[in-house]
Design goal:
Blueprint: H1 2-16, E1 18-24, E2 29-33, E3 35-44, E4 48-55, E5 61-67, E6 70-76, E7 83-92, E8 96-111, E9 115-121, E10 124-128, E11 130-139, E12 142-145, E13 148-157, E14 160-163, E15 166-175, E16 178-183, E17 187-194, E18 197-201, E19 208-213, E20 218-222, E21 228-234, E22 238-241, E23 248-250, E24 255-260, E25 265-271, E26 275-280
Parallel strand pairs: 2-6, 2-8, 3-7, 3-8, 8-9, 8-10, 9-11, 10-12, 11-13, 12-14, 13-15, 14-16, 15-17, 16-18, 17-19, 18-20, 19-25, 20-26, 21-25, 22-26
Antiparallel strand pairs: 1-4, 4-7, 5-6, 21-24, 23-24
Length: 281
């Protein structure tokens, strides 16, 4: 079936570099490579895959094949290089997604499976996703909403936003702000080099929350009723709280701590050169 679909797509694309076709699939994984431009993936409740493709160039072809439970989608130019184009895919919601590209803007919605996306230049937007979620962007923002599971985001030059998501969250950002909002987690780790960090989420007993920025500010919401041991580490920054705390340690040495409630969670906050702001609901 896949071989026949590929042939039909190539025939349809020959004059106008466009295609639109739907076919039945029996796969648990979708892999997209060798594409430059824009790709959008939408999950639906059908055991079918719809492919809509559009290219600006006459050169190149779209290749779709299936092997070992994986559907492979790629484009190839005359010399094997990626082809620039726009690709819209509708796929079964539970299918695992793996998308890689050099210059590629990626948008994924209504996914209920694991997601892996890597791009050197381009924005990544994910709505949904569960299990293992790994997003890597060199030059472009990363936005995640409604994900669940183990969420890992790496961004070099671009802001990171994770909202209404639950599970273990690890974010690394070099030049960009990190915003976590509506988070349900007992394991959060954020490391930023040149950017602000904002956290609004749960702090549960036994949880560990580590937020660190070198050249930026921290803004952390401490929920009412939270039980946490909070440690502060800064070199030339400041501490600002809107609630009373009993500090332990020497702020002159920029290392202090205090306890909220019974202190069953561990919150570690570090800002080399910035303001650490603690708010309470």
């Amino acid at each position: 079936m896949i071989a026949h679909v590929t042939a039909a797509l190539l025939a349809a694309m020959a004059p106008a570099q466009q295609a639109d076709t739907t076919f039945a699939v029996d796969a648990i994984r979708l892999e997209v490579t060798q594409l430059e431009g824009v790709i959008s993936v939408t999950g639906w409740d059908r055991d079918e895959m719809r492919v809509q493709a559009s290219y600006d160039e006459d050169e190149g072809r779209l290749d779709i094949r299936q092997s070992g439970g994986t559907i492979h989608v790629s484009t190839k130019g005359e010399w094997g290089e990626p082809v620039y184009g726009e690709l819209a895919l509708s796929v079964p919601r539970s299918i695992a997604l793996e998308i890689t590209g050099v210059s590629l803007e990626v948008g994924i919605e209504r996914s209920a499976g694991s997601v892996s996306v890597s791009t050197a230049e381009g924005e990544i937007l994910l709505v949904g996703g569960s299990g293992n979620v790994a997003l890597n962007a060199v030059n472009g923002p990363v936005t995640v909403a409604g994900a669940s599971g183990k969420i890992a985001v790496n961004a070099v030059d671009g802001d990171v936003s994770v909202s209404e998501s639950d599970g273990a969250i690890a974010v690394t950002a070099v030049d960009g702000d990190v915003t976590l909002e509506g988070i349900t987690s007992d394991n959060v780790s954020v490391n930023a080099v040149d950017g602000d960090i904002a956290y609004d989420g749960t702090i549960v007993d036994g949880g560990r929350y580590v937020l660190s920025t070198h050249d930026g500010d921290l803004d952390v919401l401490i929920p009412n009723g939270a039980n946490a041991r909070i440690s502060i580490d800064t070199f030339s920054g400041e501490l600002d709280t809107d609630f009373a705390v009993e500090l332990e340690g020497d702020f002159g040495k920029k290392r202090i701590s205090f306890t909220v409630g019974t202190g069953k969670a561990l919150v570690e906050l570090s800002a080399f050169d910035g303001i650490i702001s603690l708010r309470q609901e």
